[in-house]
Amino acid sequence: MQKRSIVTITYIVFLLLPIYWLVAMSFKPTNEILGGFSLFPQTFTLANYKVIFTDPTWYWGYINSIIYVTLNTLISVAVALPAAYAFSRYRFLGDKQLFFWLLTNRMAPAAVFALPFFQLYSAVGLFDTHLAVALAHTLFNVPLAVWILEGFMGGVPKELDETAYVDGYSFPRFFVTIFVPTIKAGVGVAAFFCFMFSWVELLLGKTLTSVAAKPIAATMTKTASSAGYELGLLAAAGTLTIIPGAIVIYFVRNYIAKGFAMGRV
Amino acid sequence: MAKITLSQLRHSYFDQPRGPEDYALKQIDLDWHDGGAYALLGPSGCGKSTLLNIISGLRTPSEGRILFDDQDVTHLPPDQRNIAQVFQFPVIYDTMSVYDNLAFPLRNRGVPAAQIDKRVHEIAQMLEVEEMLNLRAAGLSPDNKQKISMGRGLVRDDVNVVMFDEPLTVIDPHLKWKLRSKLKELHQRVRATMIYVTHDQTEALTFADQVVVMQDGEIVQIGTPVDLFERPAHTFVGHFIGSPGMNVLPCEVKEGGAFIAGQQVALEGEIVGGKQGQTQIGIRPEYVSLGSDGLPATVKKVADVGRHYVVDAMMGEQKVSAIIKQDVPEPGQAVHLQFKPEQTRLYRDSWLATAAREASAS
Amino acid sequence: MKTENQKAWFFVLPVLILVAFNALIPMMTVVNYSVQETFGDNLFFWEGLTWFENLLRSERFHAALGRQFLFTFLILIIEVPLGIAIAMSMPRKGIWVPFCLVIMALPMLIPWNVVGAMWNIFTLPDIGLMGYFLNHVLGISYDMTQNVFAAWVTIIIMDVWHWTSLVVLLSYAGLVSIPEAYYQAAKIDGASNFAVFRFIQLPKMKNVLTIAILLRFIDSFNIYTEPFVLTGGGPGNSTTLLSIDLVKIALGQFDLGPAAAMSLIYFAITLLVSWLFYTLMTKDDVRS
After folding, report:
1. ipTM score
2. Which residues form the ABC transporter domain (chain B) (predicted)?
3. How many domains does chain B have?
4. B27 CA to chain C: closest CA distance, Å?
């Protein structure tokens, strides 16, 4: 038992080391960082964080990211719910082909879509809007959400639907007040994965925005290249991007393992 | 094959049990004879699965010893005890064929291939699964899967005891009967000691020569199916076995006799034991009849269950069930209940407190 | 049983419209570009399959594709066994389980460029924790901006750090779904630890592992941001993977034709390998 847990502990330490380094770096002033190696911040400073919270180009990066991620999660789950219901309950012409085609989009390299997306969203006048990024990410997230939700819905017996109709529920009322609450764990897991992809993806987010909707990740890349090596600032910005993820995982912690398996993600 | 002795066995799932309520098993002393068919019967949570796991070696008891043929095996791991266990849900190795499943326990013990082959075919024939030997085990129906997991136990000819942990739970009702008689037949052929754990009285009573009834981590009675039915040692046994269970009626004891609502009730024999404690009369519905005199009651409900009628009558606030064959009363009718004296027993604090009648002892 | 109902199409319609808008129009654009040449001003000339021919003969493409396959192959043979091993060593229940799961999921929720930046900071030769440790404590000369081998080791370790948890979480979910009775039966049958792994744990993990490997293949084959931020494709072109090259051609040089042809071949390979792999892994299930 003791010997076995060493593997887990080593792995967790390995996972935490780079994160620790990022966080430690974010509390160091620039001259300490460049001056040499130190395991702990010698001069503890919050200056890096202060820059981020006072400079609009920085904090708007976060707000932009959160806006399009939220928008994307809402759109993806909302359209995926009825579709997943159709796939889990009915047979219809071309259902299997459609399902497979949806999934192939999950396999598409984002790099392939960068240029055509840029042109498409410019053409429809959505370039540099939150909606553009949110919609672009649905290409990857909707198939995923349909897949996950279909898995969870398959576990709900059909008798639930039938009982509700016998009790005189209309379909929309049944769907919203009974069915969706029944699979709320599934909705949570689907939303989690939509959030996850939209939050971590950068290529499309960067390509589809310039100023008004620029994500934090893009702001960081720009700082890294233009302002030379402002490592402390970069580390502080990076540290702050970990927090939303950590909060979200904390909420779905009991469903993560099960969700990964059940959602077959 | 072996005799199994459980000596002063106690088990608690707590590291430091503070009192009797922390024990899942309270003091078990038991002898099981070589080649017998036993059942462990009791409601869910009574400790029967714990006891089974202690015998198989999947759990080590907190206190006490287990002996196989006078050899102490308390601390031996399961694979060295030569036991076999069939679980509630069929456990089979999905990726192997039926043949490989049956051969698995022998291969793990380094038995020569020729001998394995012979043994597997013998067992397959016994279980009537010969034509499935080359199929993937994953595709079988639940009853066949359960047969295979039984076969994995029987394939070793040195098995001391085969244990069944509610093996018919996932089997379709019409196949349950078939599989149960197969079990009985197997027992007669291989003569291994078999222990069958269940909460279903029919399964226990039809399978076993001796039934051990458990409640709350204690053995309340050990006996043949007839014993358990005729002379329950504890009101729980009376209640748990039989359909409907034994009537248990509060009574008063004075001057060496038992009284219900002021009327004396004749008992099978003398009252034994102390004077303290709560007393009750136990009488099976089979031995309650309706007559012109006796305890007055009002019929509440009559149910036709096919071969006979079950009459529920109210004696004041107390419900009494009676099984009768003819002259069915109407609900609401006033009747008199008569108890067959040689089947009427007194229980004190739930334990039997009347001496057996000389005549009925034979 | 599912019932036949053509009206179900109405439920699927929103998804269909959204994905069609996002997938079909760009795909048509790409196909369109892949057979034309442009010199700007929206003037296009028919080129037929020239771009495809050029690309398939181009050494630059071969090299990028080769690096891409090497990268995917390496991370698969490291992450899959490692993930299984970690999942098996994790506690099955207790207060540490949610703790482990949360920490393990964390790297997957960090924006990809931050992952790259974080590893960049971590591996800086003199002031990064790993770089300092290797150079000054172990005395191994390490600088991934100069040394090809160091660069490859770094992007591999980074990906192991980033994505092994996916394999762990999926395997773990498979493992905890095995009923206790299987282990007990195996004990009674005298099975060795290896036999338990081979005949109980591995078969029960097969479905989730298929998904894990499939996802790891797709994601590692499509990887762009992390290695781009970490190494920028260098030193030289040594870590220029297929996607990095593609973005360079499409958004850097605006060579629409070659980029489009490359996109199509790229996507086709991803689909083909995924399909082959999936068919291979699920073949047994169909038979039984």
Report:
1. 0.85
2. 4-241
3. 2
4. 25
